[in-house]
Amino acid sequence: MLSLEDLKALAHPADTKIVLFVLDGLGGLTRKGESQTELEAARTPNLDRLAGEGNLGLADPVAPGITPGSGPGHLGLFGYDPLQYRIGRGVLEAVGIDLEMTERDLAARGNFCSVDAHGLSTDRRAGRIPTEVCAQLTLLLEKIGIPGLEVIVRPVREHRFVVLFRGDGLEEGLSETDPQETGKPPLPVRAEVFAAKKAAGVANQFVSEARRVLSSEHPANMVLLRGFSKYPSLPKLTEIYGLRAAVIAVYPMYRGLAKLVGMQAVKTGDTVAEEITALESVYGRFDFFFVHVKKTDSAGEDGNFEKKVAVIEEADAQIPRLMSLKPDVLVVTGDHSTPAPFKAHSWHPVPVLLWSKWCRPDAAAKFSERECRFGGIGHIRAAELMPLIMAHAERLAKFGA
Amino acid sequence: MLSLEDLKALAHPADTKIVLFVLDGLGGLTRKGESQTELEAARTPNLDRLAGEGNLGLADPVAPGITPGSGPGHLGLFGYDPLQYRIGRGVLEAVGIDLEMTERDLAARGNFCSVDAHGLSTDRRAGRIPTEVCAQLTLLLEKIGIPGLEVIVRPVREHRFVVLFRGDGLEEGLSETDPQETGKPPLPVRAEVFAAKKAAGVANQFVSEARRVLSSEHPANMVLLRGFSKYPSLPKLTEIYGLRAAVIAVYPMYRGLAKLVGMQAVKTGDTVAEEITALESVYGRFDFFFVHVKKTDSAGEDGNFEKKVAVIEEADAQIPRLMSLKPDVLVVTGDHSTPAPFKAHSWHPVPVLLWSKWCRPDAAAKFSERECRFGGIGHIRAAELMPLIMAHAERLAKFGA
How far apart are alpha carbons B364 and B377 in whole angstroms? Predict the structure, then answer.
């Protein structure tokens, strides 16, 4: 695979528009005794027509057999090898609640938990306290003063929160405090690399102060921290390819991931139709549009096959509006598979549809996992898709003379 | 992928013959409203019969989405990862005019240009002077004496020439002098790496002498240099596989590329039939034959769909003569795609046909991009083809015990 530097050297500007339409968790499975996946069962006349004119393929988000989280799943689609570019859980949580980070920040994911009089963990999730209680408690935590730095604490959901330590010299490479079982005390934070010594001291000071300020609370009278991570300094998609890029996504996590690679967030309503309306409203201002549909994944996670079929059909119904914008390249794919029969993210390769006037047509009858096996794109890594998109958008120069 | 050293360790001699028949720019596209590529539209009964007996596949010359120049395209076919082995433009120009290089040479591509009395560029191509004028002027340049080294200057075409600086300690890593726009003076050559300091001095001295010796010429009164590059020290194909290898190509560029990897050039006439006659004449003296047909690419570049179809049919008509030599392995493919509708090199994967008695037959009906999607070779990188060829020629030992 070409390095991002190689690709940057080849990239040149062009007056072309690209839409990356991601149906989260698109890849599916057949139900026992049946013969069609969610995508195959869905009636998708518009996608099927594009499959006839364009190219199909299968993409492994990370590598064969590897089930990706949302972070690696999207990094792959944005052209970054998820094995080379990693995003820590603390950062992902911060990004997931639209919390702006700076390069001086060290982020961690926190859990409120319960400890007994001896400081031994009795419930690692503090009985999953309501989100409102979590919000009240984070206000207490934010009052913790650590000299020379700023502490920012925000609720996520139930017992989960994010903490940012903002200051100089806070490096990642810290062990987590979660003892992973009840009856044990939270672990002290250890610096796993020398550069993280200062950060370890700060984190331990925060945990010890947290115990003090929460001492009269119940059941959430202590915290566990993990996923300590710095804001990643990724080369920006926008700079690599010289693109103005926008993200249209209902959930903050996906907007946050896109912002990490240089995209600008566009306001949108909740439905697929409203997302396409948002796309229409900014179409003149950007070159690259990442449009994210969440509900395919949610339906898959819920094991709701029919619901996932319905969301795919809802997305298909918007294709004519999208195509009437006359994009030069349209890609429809997922960041990973979430087969309804599996009820979770999975490792199954993801169907890919790439449409442009420069496709050597596959003449496929339908956009389906089955047809994708025979497509002209072949079976690739998700990160290989972006150069293919840029080629079809006539934005890559010849390699070598 | 195995390294060339790994492959060398596996290679063993055999009494088998291999023909690599390259139709330059073979991969194509359908025209708007039509359903067949150039290869699909061509009547190729002989290739179709071989497709039935052998294996088909698709090859990406460099990586998905990457459009290769002729250098990387052929290096891939010869089994070299084009990302690892790179050939500079100066060397490619030298190779393209059959100019022999040594390992002490630093090559550069030159343009004659025009400058005004202040030394500012007024025409970066000196009005595209005729090749004969270029030839006269290179004689003047060749008289430039630089102590301790030899300067070799040869015309290419119109305003373009090649210069070789032959001497010790001339390393690559130099910036180019082309200011890229008129109204600016040619740039001085800068050493981008420490080892290139001597070479930078030499290049600057040459440019300043060139200005002097050309001062009374018009319009070509100055030179621009770029693509400074050393002769690449590639491990030789012939040594890796223990082969005697020959190149049969009408254009010097392709002979030159083949000579870089150890092949010997064989004299040939201009038509495909004459190239096969050349093949017949040396068939006993070599094990590996690279036969290059240029006109598929030229027709593609010209956007001449029918002409490209005709050249493919011309090549097909020579297959019976080629097969009557009884090669053990025959491969028919391209170094990249040059779809007539695209009128340029492109990134589209290249159809591959590999025929040997050891093929597990695909039983394909036709040699076409479509059938190649379903072939037993699958969708590979071009550089992976060479081990496959050697295997079918029974020239690779078992890997591991």
Answer: 12
